[in-house]
Amino acid sequence: MRSMVCNKRDWLGPLVLAVITLTGGSITANADTTGLGSLPAPTLWLELDNAATNAMMWGKDLSSFITLDAATGNWGFTNDFHWDSNGKLADGTTPLYSIDIKASDNHGNVDPFINYSVAVRNNSATSVTFNRVFNAPIAPNITGANTVQASVGGVITDGTGNGASITPTPLPSIQQDSDGISELQILRLHSATTNSWTNAGVDVGQTQSYSGAGLHVYGVYSAGPVAGPLGSWDQMQINSRFTLSGGGDTASLSGYAEILPVPEPAGWMTLSVGLLVAGYMARRRNEIN
User: What are the phi and psi torsion angles at 81 (to 5°)?
Assistant: First the structure.
């Protein structure tokens, strides 16, 4: 079974070595325990795999790039992230692979929702598989009826005009939804009671192939809002694993996922009464005036 982000695997294989460029301020810890109380920190795992063998070539835990404000429940990146492989093309300067994450496009809240974006470039002659696993806390836990929704889209660039393709390649160990289609973005929910993960039923993002150099639109693929699985959920996770063609092709993707509790009947009654009272008071003021 492939290790997930919580194992914080940080092994550099012989083929690809990491060069990390940071911009902006210092990286801070998730230490605020006021407001919402002590929360599990968001975690992010990035990985490049050999597309033919599934062997990991490079992996990096970026959890330290993420801060969580427990007073508001907001989380976000402290820095932009750029990575180039030490492996180069024949010119000696162009990296085989590059990854970019823009801090302003990666954020969310424990109420909870996730927004993310990532850009991956494959300058090698063969396809490569990219894997991104992100965990975010849910606070307070969502129990009972809920709704879930998700979307993903972006741009695929054919770098040399020889065709470009993006193919979802989820790991067999990751439960998919029931439509029987391998999809690029999988949303899972973690049970606080059983310590296990359940597919949320809103996987999105399909295989696409393009011809002709330049930019090609990918998606937008969306699912929901639909009724989500029942449980006591304390974390949500986005798995995004896909194979990208080579020859200078680029995948620039943005995704979104959300789970919301469905108000209990008593909650709807309270809201309805409140609206009726507010309407009555407004009418009385108009009559007096």
Answer: -125, 130
